[in-house]
Amino acid sequence: MSLLEVEHLHATYETIVALRDISFVVGQGEIVTLIGSNGAGKTTTLNTLCGLTPARSGSIRLAGERIEALPPHEIARRGVIQSPEGRKIFARLSVLENLEMGAFSRRDNRAVKRDLEDVLGRFPRLRERLHQPGGTLSGGEQQMLAIGRALMAKPRLLLLDEPSMGLAPIFVRDVFESLVALNKQGTTILLVEQNAHMALMIAHRAYVMQTGLITHSGDAKVLRKDPAIIRAYLGGA
User: Fold this and answer.
1) How far apart, in whole angstroms, are the C-alpha atoms of residue 190 and residue 116?
2) CA Rg value for the chain
3) Which residue range forms the structural domain that includes residue 17?
4) pTM here?
5) How many CB atoms within 10 Å of residue 165?
6) What's the pLDDT tens digit per position in 150-180?
7) Is residue 143 part of a domain?
């Protein structure tokens, strides 16, 4: 069953045509990844899904409901939650306050407390640094905090933009292992990632973007073996 259906989506960023008639789906319970070079339109795609970049034409359906004309806060209330590129945590707020900000629109206090415990159990480093300012954390810890903050919003669809950017290899492994664990527990994930090798390792399906177009799509395991994908994105000869 499809959770997200995008059809013939066009979007512009300032005066640049960023998305050109793209269509894709994300099934309930899947990890789907968008891969491509810088400037391909991956981040614009996520921002358009969130309402941060207006859709010029086309449709975005979440569980059958069209959401492309809704303001960002209404899209977030429906469960489309992004952990943005560069993490964008609140550096002066504590780890706990950052996590609480993720749940600012929720009113179910008992469930919020339960989810906080789940996030801290998932990312033990955050529990150890609960009262430290977010800006004092390492890059890997900040990425865990950004993902944890997104989870506190109780996402139906979790959008992740470059979660491995700038991280040491050990933190990259930790982040991707946490994404697999999240997905096994039912979280649907749309992943934008420069590390195409790791993204294709954990995703069920993948779409390849180039200059605002989707040029390839299919099973992630199959695309990992595609000679064109290997040459372009996986460092192959």
Assistant:
1) 22
2) 17
3) 2-90+155-233
4) 0.93
5) 15
6) 999 999 999 999 998 888 888 888 889 999 9
7) no
